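ARCHIVE CARD
Drawer: 12
Card no.: 0347
Subject: one protein chain, sequence and derived structure
Cross-reference: see card 0346
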Amino acid sequence: MAAASVVSGCLASAPSNPAAGCAGLPDAAQTLAQAWQVYQPDQPLSPAVNARKRLFAFQALLLSAGMYTEPPSDPAAVYAQYAPQFVRDFGMSRNPALDAALNKLSSTLQQVRERSDRDLSDNCGLILARRLLREDPVNVSTDWILQRVTWGLAATFQTSIRQMVHEYAQTCSSEPDVDRAPESVLACTMRRVGL
C-alpha cells in the first residue's frame, strides 16, 4: 500500500492531536453486504458471510494495526480492500496467521501501554484496538479470543465456548497480578485459554 494510505485517517484531524483523527471502525455488516452484492449481485447475502462478520471485523482490525505481515493502514481502507476477499473465502486465507496476529497484538498493546495515542498516531488500527480493549476489557478480550478459537464458526456451540472464555476474562480482570490493566486482561485470558 502506498505510504499515504498508511497514515490517512490518522493525521486528517487538527495537528494538536493527530490521534483524534482516527475515525471509528466502519460497519462490518454493511461493508460485507456491499462486497457481496458486487460478488453475487443476484443472490442475497450468504448466511455464512453474515455469521462471520465479527471475524471479518477482527481480522480487518488486525490488518489495519499491522499485526499480519502488511504495514499498518487506514482501517476504512482495509475494510474496503479486504471485504471482497472475505466474501469469497470467509476469512480462511487469514486464519492460519490469526494466532500469531493476536499474539502480536497482545504483546504490542502491552509494550505501548504507557504511551499516548498521539505517540501512536501513525497506527490508527492499534489506537482503535486499544480504545476498544480499554472500554470493555472483559467482553473485548472474550470476543477477540472467541474469533480466534472458532474462526468465526461454530454457531451451535459458540455460546458455551463464549461463556467459558468470558469466565476466564472475568477471573483475569480480578486477579491482583493483572493490575486491572485491560492489556493484561487480554494477555491473561489468552494464557488461560491456551493461546
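Annotation on reverse: Residues 158-174 form the longest helix (17 residues). The CA atoms of residues 13 and 21 lie 4 Å apart.
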